[in-house]
């Protein structure tokens, strides 16, 4: 089996997150809409931490699922409570420190979520390396090689991301495992092992010798970079005793394999001299690999092949070809095929993560969001009122000029548009039949209302008479409040309703009178369009002259202007934007100026729309 290195996990102590986070929420954060209990979410978060750090974790994807879900929740919380001391002692030990009887083990305790995030992220990268190693127990297993390459690349990306976080001011004096030099070495090691996984994959897939040589050459380069980083004085003491030997041996071994496969390319091209030179170089590199550490069977299997090919081609050259053997230093460098690349984690490491505290907002953000909503409502109402006022003024001017009716063709050849629209409206509402039906119902309704009022009046009168009779009979023993006093509000209401019925009856008479006056014209509008057109009196056709054409063009502009205003009002009312994310970015800034943020963001959101509204109104004003 190939020697693949898995990174150990950091250890931590068990702590309770529930009570300290409750205190933080009550002092620094508020619910976005209404008070919400976070007890269940906090207990779930506490459980996630325990499962991610305290219990024994298997080298399996399920462990990664728990760890990444916990990391995502920390990330969500960190955006809402940045730079806050949580009064939670997050204590983490150095992953590479084995401790001693006298000195104990290296550890660091901080009270910020940022430190907890960094340590969990380190463990995610370490677990990804362990899962990768568990999949590559057999390098001839195609699915295992693909999964190993995937998780080694993910581990490399995780450590690359960790390096950018660990270099921040969150950790002033980190433990050795979190220092930039350490993380750089681990990131490089993971990438080299991912490339090595791809090497065994291309071998299993029987790729061309030239391709295999390039993949091996890139693997050698990555192990060479890793070796330099691991041999730095600042980190050399951290590693297990055989780690540096394994990396050094692999670096030399992959140099040998790259030269061996390139020699096969030379053999196919009949380039005997270069083939010999590369086999010599492969032999020397394999000896170096053997001296650096214990060679695994994957490398040992190539030793007889290299030796056999070298002896055979050297013999052929001595007796047949007599080709010049170039110096090893003058050989053209082998190309490099970089198949492995770091997979950088996204905003969410686990696609199934849901923010358990989604309704929670920093107090400053909640205040800013509420103020922005008020500002937004003010802007929307003001701009709508401006446009509606301008439209009313425009309609008034048009009505005073009898437009657009004055431009309609009344020669009798076709029905004017304004009359067509009015006729359609009358027909849709039922026409004369519906009006007459409603008018015929009015006397019965009026009579029914009077009967109800009379019945109510009778009941009140009977009740008062009964009360008076009983009061006279029992005298001082009848201590109930007099009905006349109790019923006074009801009598007042009765008088009001009687007045309303009388007023409605008078209004009915006015409506009926107006209807009788205009009944024939309403009936005319109910006729089919052809008959209505025939019954209309013919007027003189509107002259076709430049002034009339110009007026028609202006009316088209007016219609377009009104349509644009309706669209602008719709955009104003539907312009829903969630400002929480924008105000989150401002939240860490001390003494955030809410007014400045509101003004800037309201201009950003509504500025372009307000400019279009002003342009629309300016077009109307330009016609005066």
Provide an overview of this structure.
It holds the Pfam family ALIX_LYPXL_bnd. It comes from Trichonephila clavata. InterPro entries: ALIX_V_dom (IPR025304), BRO1_dom (IPR004328), BRO1_sf (IPR038499). This is Programmed cell death 6-interacting protein. With about 625 residues, this protein is mostly helical. The protein is built from 20 helices and four strands. A two-stranded antiparallel ribbon has the order 1-4. The longest helix has about 45 residues, at about 430-475. The chain is elongated.
Can you tag this structure with a few keywords?
mainly alpha, 2% strand, two-stranded antiparallel ribbon, single chain, 624 residues, 67% helix
Present the secondary structure layout.
Blueprint: H1 18-28, E1 29-31, H2 39-54, H3 61-80, E2 90-93, E3 107-110, H4 113-135, H5 142-166, H6 180-204, H7 209-230, H8 243-268, H9 272-292, H10 297-300, H11 302-321, E4 360-362, H12 363-400, H13 417-428, H14 431-474, H15 483-486, H16 488-525, H17 529-535, H18 546-574, H19 580-586, H20 594-621
Antiparallel strand pairs: 1-4, 2-3
Helix pairs in contact: 2-3, 3-4, 4-5, 5-6, 6-7, 7-8, 8-9, 9-11, 12-18, 12-19, 12-20, 14-16, 18-20
Which band does the percent of strand residues land in?
under 5%
Helix count, DSSP H or I runs of 4 or more residues: 20
Q: Return residue spans where pLDDT drops below 50 for at least 5 consecutive residues.
A: 588-595
Radius of gyration: 44 Å
Silhouette:
elongated
Q: What topology, given as strand order, has the largest sheet?
A: 1-4
Major β-sheet profile:
2 strands, antiparallel
Care to count the β-strands? 4
Helix content: 55-70%
Distance between the termini: 90 Å
Average pLDDT: 85
